[in-house]
Amino acid sequence: MTDQSATGDSQGACPVGGAGGSTPENPATQGALSYTSYLGLDEVLNAQRLRSDEHDELLFIVIHQVYELWFKQILHEADFLQRNLEEGNTAHSIRTLRRILTILKVAVAQIDVLETMTPSQFTSFRTRLDASSGFQSAQFRELEAVLGRRDERVFAHYPEDGEQRKRIAEAMARPSLFDSFVAYLKVSGYAVECDRDVTRPVEPSPALQAILLDVYSDDEGPSIVAECLVDLDEGMQEWRYRHVKMVERTIGDKTGTGGSSGATYLRTTLFQPMFPDLWAVRSRL
Fold first, then answer.
1. CA 20 to 30 Å from 141, out of 26, 32, 116, 267?
2. What is the reported pLDDT for 23?
3. What does the alpha-carbon distance between residue 44 and residue 184 come to, in Å, rounded to a whole number?
4. Contacts of 225 (CB under 8 A, 6+ apart)
């Protein structure tokens, strides 16, 4: 499709000044919006509250705050992705999946920065973390739920009437990303069943795998979406693996902060696919 704005053809487009041809307001009359105020930099750059005089504590805090911002963005994109899948919008679904994948690659790469901190440098301020732990990242738990995890044991880290627990519980009660993908296949003309109990974990389905064979055989938009989901699954597994190795490298098999089991628990999360049908079908393609 020709980009009319690039060719100068303005037929059917709104005038530059907006509907009716009005001119934009002068920014000087709209208040003193600046780079700093628009991005809330006063709040962001003062949100690093160190609990020690150790040089490396700032890096530890910044890295984890950046992770939380990326988790927030991935959740935002995942919500948009699910709506587009359920509406059968292939192009928007693929673009959104590719954005999520790119963000995930950046998040994984940040572990390289964290690994510039030696075990002794981390130990120098570790005791100041008290009961705080990465296991308490409510956004990551919510993301896991969006991707299909259904495990009420995660609620142990959150107060019963707290907002964080509520968000995770709501995500566990909604259709997961894979449920939205199945709905997308139905909208795309495939004879899939969409009556699964979405509060339960996704289990492999031979019937769905047979349909996925048709999806791949057709080699059209739905097969590209399926492959992007495989990329996402692999990306999450890569994140988990790098996270485990980073923890092992930093504290070995010591108990994690906040009393967590550290690397021992993290190892149990490895090699558990979020979308088992998309992996099971590989040997039959």
1. 116
2. 52
3. 38
4. 85, 90, 93, 94, 97, 181, 184
